[in-house]
Amino acid sequence: MITSFPHFVNHQTQILILGTMPGVVSLEKQEYYAHKRNHFWKIMYTLFGNSHISEIFEEKIKLLQSHKLGLWDVLENCERKGSLDIHIKNQKENDFESLFNEFPSIHKIIFNGKESHRYFAKKFGKIEGITYYVMPSTSPANTMSFENKLKIWSTCFQ
């Protein structure tokens, strides 16, 4: 059984970015999107005007929070061999009802990949008052170029 991380959400959060479950490297380092070939942080730093990506996880989170972004995963825990979402089984979803009650300013969810959206929609459906965006996965398993991922992800922040 593997377990996700706590959410990084505060009372200024308006946009919640949701992955499915951290990969092996992220779990080892205890940091979201820690695999050096994952494009997530490069996309965030490029979109928000910083050319140098911090090596310090807390600074990465501060960048998100300074732009009213929060970060979490759809799943609280699951069984999975490796890092691929297709190998997930016996999953339990995070408690989004409590999250949205505690942080009512969240009005947009950006799903990092189709699988995170699929797991969320299966359990919670469409939540009134929240706009959904399903973005290409930033995972190295998604072979789409960085430039294409960046172009598509940028549409969420216009």
Task: Walk me through this protein's architecture.
One of its GO terms (molecular function) is pyrimidine-specific mismatch base pair DNA N-glycosylase activity. Keywords: DNA damage, DNA repair, Hydrolase. One of its GO terms (biological process) is base-excision repair, AP site formation. InterPro entries: Hypoxan-DNA_Glyclase (IPR026353), MUG/TDG (IPR015637), Uracil-DNA_glycosylase-like (IPR005122), Uracil-DNA_glycosylase-like_sf (IPR036895). It is built from six helices and seven strands, in the order ββαααβββαβαβα. It is an alpha/beta fold. It has one domain: Uracil-DNA Glycosylase, subunit E, CATH 3.40.470.10. Helix 5 links the parallel strand 6 and strand 7. The chain is globular and about 40 Å long.
Q: How many angstroms separate the termini?
A: 38 Å
Supply the helix-strand structural class: alpha/beta
Amount of beta strand: 15-25%
What sequence of helices (H) and strands (E) makes up the elements?
EEHHHEEEHEHEH
- Cα gyration radius (Å): 15 Å
What is the number of helices?
6
The assigned CATH architecture is 3-Layer(aba) Sandwich
Please identify the top-level CATH class.
Answer: Alpha Beta
Question: How many structural domains are formed by the residues?
Answer: 1
What do the pLDDT scores average to?
Answer: 94
- CATH fold group: Uracil-DNA Glycosylase, subunit E
Give start-end ranges of low-pLDDT stretches. Answer: none
Spatial strand sequence of the major β-sheet: 3-2-6-7
CATH superfamily: Uracil-DNA glycosylase-like domain
Q: Can you summarize the main beta sheet?
A: 4 strands, parallel
GO biological process, one term: base-excision repair, AP site formation
Organism: Flavobacterium frigoris
GO molecular function: pyrimidine-specific mismatch base pair DNA N-glycosylase activity; uracil DNA N-glycosylase activity
Protein name: G/U mismatch-specific uracil-DNA glycosylase
